[in-house]
Amino acid sequence: MGLLENRSLLLKSNKILKIDHKNKFKDLNYKKINLNESIIIPGLINSHIHLELNWVHKKLREYKNFPEWLNQIIDLKKNNLNKNVIKKSIKDAIISSIKSGVTTIGQISSYNGIDIPIINKYGIRCCYFYEIANSNKDNFIKNLKVIERRLIKKNLISIGIFPHSIYSLDTKIWETIISICKKKGYITSTHLSESRDEVQFIKGNDNKFDNLIFQKLISTPNIYRRKSFSPLKYLKYINFLDLNPTLVHMNNLSNEDKDIVKKNNLRIIICPRSNVFLKEKLPDLEFMLNYDLTGLGTDGLSSNHDLNIINEMYFLYKKAKKLKIKNLKEKILYIATLGGAKCLGIDNQVGSIQENKKADLIGFKITQKNPLNSILYDGGKNINLRMIDGKII
Predict the structure, then answer these.
(1) 87 pLDDT band (50/70/90 cuts)?
(2) Which of 46, 53, 208, 391 is the most exposed place for a label (fewest CB within 10 A)?
(3) Residues 32, 378: Cα–Cα separation, whole Å
(4) How far is residue 358's CA from residue 345's CA, in Å, rounded to a whole number?
(5) Tens of pLDDT along 335-346?
(6) Which are the contacts of 224, defined by CB distance < 8 A and separation ≥ 6?
(7) pLDDT value of position 100
(8) How do the domains of the chain map onto residue ranges?
(9) Strands 38-42 and 361-365, how do they pair?
(10) Mean pLDDT of the chain
(11) pLDDT for residue 294
């Protein structure tokens, strides 16, 4: 639809009832919110975040590559069983997200639901992905039932399943996850093609998962590998793509992989600052920004400098500007709103300003000649409205 000038929104309860010229509503006896010279957009969607990992950021030491970073994460999580530290991380991450204009998060949770009451308290919309790795494979069905019970009557929180990665789960566990998701209709997502070593790993070539990560494990994952596999081809082989999953990162794709993505209408979430933080390459930005099913995430503070989604958008803009992509700013706004909603399977509810959709809205005071620059350039400091499900927060 593009930018509309001199428009007002009529809201009823938690939905957008009508969109029309502002003069059409001036005589209505309703409560009015006058934002003056502002631009209102759909609430921003941070499609991929690990709320509970804020505490990790200051404890990281120097690393040379992704597996060395992951090695530290494994040790840090193993040695921190302090639930209060984890709960504070979750709270701080939510507050930071809301401050930057986020109204929906795709939360990847690995602590069996201790984050649910905090997410519910702050009233942020959440697609809640229960993360599964070999470390919790024996209990994940029982833990999933606990999470399902905790989410009863949590209207803003929906559930999904997140197998961590191709290198952290037995092939047979993937098969069990596929069966559960087909039965329950859960949305699924996973990290994929995030590192060069992951590509070499699934081919059975020399890699640092075998040489570093697996050396410290009591029991290494039993994973079927082939020289002909890419990470994406492996998921196709085990029929995971039948679930129409959302694939996160995807910054090491071949041309053949991109063809598979397009043929299967696969949903992709990119986290560009995380890729750089982890000393990996960026995804193919031209492909991702011209692809209709792309969303944007910050990842966790374990692999980023902050959780400000607008900073993520601005970083992406700077990196993609040299590619001469048509309507670049509009496309970045799209993947941070409707694209993200599509990736989380909730585009029938949020992601765009349309009648009968949920009233998840963000307002920005216009500070630049081009209103889109007022979104991208000020880091969210000019936000003057935050609304989730029809409630000002």
Answers:
(1) very high
(2) 391
(3) 26
(4) 14
(5) 999 999 999 999
(6) 171, 234, 237, 238
(7) 98
(8) 39-392
(9) antiparallel
(10) 95
(11) 98
| The pairing of beta strand 38-42 with beta strand 157-163 | unpaired
**3-state DSSP assignment of residue 237:** helix
Nearest to 23 by CA among 13, 41, 10, 14: 10
| Tokens representing residue 357 in the block | 């959709």
Distance CA 237, CA 231 (A): 10
Nearest to 307 by CA among 32, 22, 91: 91
Q: Among residues of the chain, what percentage have pLDDT more than 70?
A: 100
Other Cβ atoms closer than 10 A to 356:
10
Please state the φ and ψ torsions of residue 106, each to the nearest 5 degrees.
Answer: -105, 90
Residues 6+ apart with CB under 8 A from 29: none
Two tokens, residue 161 = 């399943």
DSSP 90-157: HHHHHHHHHHTTEEEEEEEE-STTTTHHHHHHHT-EEEEEEEE-GGGTTTHHHHHHHHHHHTTT-TTE
**C-alpha dist (Å) from residue 22 to 32, 210, 371:** 11, 62, 18
* Contact between residue 57 and residue 96 where contact means Cβ atoms under 8 Å apart: no
Residue 354 has pLDDT above 80, yes or no: yes
- Output the pLDDT for position 267: 98
Q: For strand 391-392 and strand 383-388, is the pairing parallel, antiparallel, or unpaired?
A: antiparallel
User: Which residue pairs, CB below 8 angstroms and at least 24 apart, start in 8-14?
Assistant: 9/40, 9/353, 9/359, 9/361, 11/359, 11/390, 13/390, 14/358, 14/359, 14/389, 14/390, 14/391
**Residue 113 phi, psi (nearest 5):** 95, 5
Q: What 8-state DSSP symbol labels residue 358?
A: B
Please provide the CATH number assigned to the domain covering 39-392.
3.20.20.140
Cα–Cα distance measured from residue 334 to residue 371, given in angstroms and rounded to the nearest whole number: 15
Per residue in 231-279, pLDDT tens? Answer: 999 999 999 999 999 999 999 999 999 999 999 999 999 999 999 999 9
For residue 78 the two structure tokens come to 């193993």
CA–CA distance, 156 with 104 (Å, rounded to integer): 9
pLDDT tens by residue, 100-147:
999 999 999 988 899 999 999 999 999 999 999 887 777 888 989 999
Question: Which helix (H) or strand (E) segment is 162 a member of?
Answer: strand 157-163
